[in-house]
Amino acid sequence: MPKIIGTHSGTFHCDEALACFMLRQLDEYSDAKIVRSRDPAVLDTCDIVVDVGGVYDHDTKRYDHHQRGFDEQFSTDYKTKLSSAGLIYKHYGKDVIRSIAKDAHLSEGEVDQLFDRLYKVFVEGIDGNDNGISRYPEEIDPFYLDNTGLPSRVSRLNPWWNEPEGDMDERFTKAVALTGSEFSERVRYHALAWLPGRKLVEQAYQSRFDIDSSGKIVLFDQFCPWKDNLSIIEDEALEKNPELAKIIYVLYADPAGAWRVQSVPEKPGSFKSRHPLPEAWRGVRDDALSERSGIEGCIFVHQSGFIGGNKTRDGALELARKALTMD
């Protein structure tokens, strides 16, 4: 007999939609029926209940976060209070990852890495949004509105205030599909692209002194998304040895076969570089840049100094080495 997942009726939100999707990735709930109600008698008939009922008890499979005194976090590394999505992820997330990314044949260590990573980059944002936790101090006014995030798009699946409610269960089914599609894409990206990229970044970081004696330049023979992984790997290394030099420039080949020199941002997501390419080179191109820098084969340096290019690997490395000594 199919299991029953219970959640609340009425206006729905991103957290319980994602919680229901994650549960359905598990063999135990793969064909489960979702029942939406606030009637305790109805919820008592459910095998598992999320986001309603006023109880958090893993043993009885009750996962609400609205009750007085609830203050559960994902781990001691996080401060954000969990929503129903975070609660389900905390208890079942590793099995959910294995199910969605079964073709990646993940090791236990890799599952552990993805478990923490996906909470940080995806689930925590759902938790914070549902619990009304701002990402920055409230006295800071944002420069612009952003209503394009997943919680906003799920909210818009609810009926407008001035239109008939219609079939709310059908609307909720669309919300489950929407959250599930985006979460699955992130799981698969991290399993099949981010993890392999991390291995390349680790290799490049370990080989940095073979590239330059300063230890401040990393070179990738094959391009991969490197910013987040480099930050993580570097932080781990600095924790063991605070005296290590931070990486300043990253070199990699572009699709046309030329080489790029990119300055490492101060932190992931920042537009501010640790050490931009020299001001004298910024906005200059081709022969003029080669003449000004004294390095053959130059292509460009961006006006902000965050990136530049050279026709060859050696030319790009020479740009990086020279830039280390300039402002």
Description of the molecule:
- The protein is an alpha/beta fold and 327 residues long.
- It is 42% helix and 11% strand.
- It is built from ten helices and ten strands.
- The chain has helices at residues 14-24, 40-43, 84-100, 108-130, 150-155, 168-206, 208-211, 227-240, 286-293, 313-323; strands spanning 4-7, 33-36, 48-50, 56-57, 62-63, 217-220, 249-253, 259-263, 298-301, 307-310.
- The strands form two sheets. A five-stranded mixed β-sheet has the order 2-1-3-5-4.
- A hairpin with a 5-residue loop joins strand 7 and strand 8.
- Helix 1 (14-24) packs parallel to helix 3 (84-100) and helix 1 crosses helix 6 (168-206).
- The longest helix is centred in the middle third of the chain and has 39 residues, at 168-206.
- The mean pLDDT is 96.
Global mean pLDDT: 96
DSSP summary: helix tally: 10
Rg over C-alpha atoms, rounded to the nearest angstrom: 25 Å
Low-confidence segments = none
Strand percentage lies at 5-15%
The topology string of helices and strands comes to: EHEHEEEHHHHHEHEEHEEH
Oligomeric state of this protein: single chain
Principal-axes geometry comes out as elongated
Strand order of the largest sheet: 2-1-3-5-4
Q: What proportion of the residues is helical, as a percent range?
A: 40-55%
According to DSSP, the number of beta strands is 10
| CA(first)-CA(last) distance | 70 Å
Structural class by secondary-structure content: alpha/beta
Q: Biggest sheet: strands, sense, closure?
A: 5 strands, mixed
